Amino acid sequence: MQIEVLKSKIHRVSVTEADLDYIGSVTIDEDLMDAVSFIENEKVDIFNYNNGERFTTYVIKGERGSGVICLNGPASMKVKVGHQVIIVSYAMMDFELAKKHQPKVVFPDSLTNKLR
């Protein structure tokens, strides 16, 4: 049996930009992507800590070390710059393997979005 489990999470990171006039996605600092093993085009769910919005999009690579978290396209309407969001991805795995799986979770500095 296969089940879907939490693979990775960036917990309470600040939105630095919101760009409606973009095709879609979330731009994430490449340092944060590496820390939780996100890859470009990976599907992610985003939970807005400030207003309760929850939505799905995909990752695009942002400038390394920039701290950028930019919601693009329609997703930009669900956040404001400065909002705190949680970004998660999931993986399918065998039930027994899932029991032992440890997701990658980071808690970046809430002002700079840099890893602590």
What does this structure look like?
With 116 residues, the protein is mainly β. It has one domain (2-100): Barwin-like endoglucanases, CATH 2.40.40.20. 11% of the residues lie in helices and 47% in strands. Strands 2-6-3-5-4-7-1-8 form an eight-stranded mixed β-sheet. The longest helix is centred in the N-terminal third of the chain and has 7 residues, at 30-36. The protein is globular, with a radius of gyration of 14 Å.
| Architecture (CATH level 2) name | Beta Barrel
Helical proportion, percent range: 10-25%
Distance between the termini: 37 Å
The backbone outline, from C-alpha atoms, is globular
Provide mean pLDDT, rounded. 96
Compressed to H and E, one letter per element, the order equals EEEHEEEEHE
CATH topology group: Barwin-like endoglucanases
Q: What is the rounded Rg?
A: 14 Å
Query: Major sheet, described briefly?
Result: 8 strands, mixed
What is the strand content?
over 45%
* Spans of at least 5 consecutive residues with low confidence: none
Tell me the number of helical segments per DSSP (H or I, 4 or more residues long): 2
Number of domains: 1
- What structural class do helix, strand and pairing data support? mainly beta
CATH class: Mainly Beta
Counting DSSP E segments of at least 2 residues, the number of strands comes to 8
Strand order of the largest sheet: 2-6-3-5-4-7-1-8
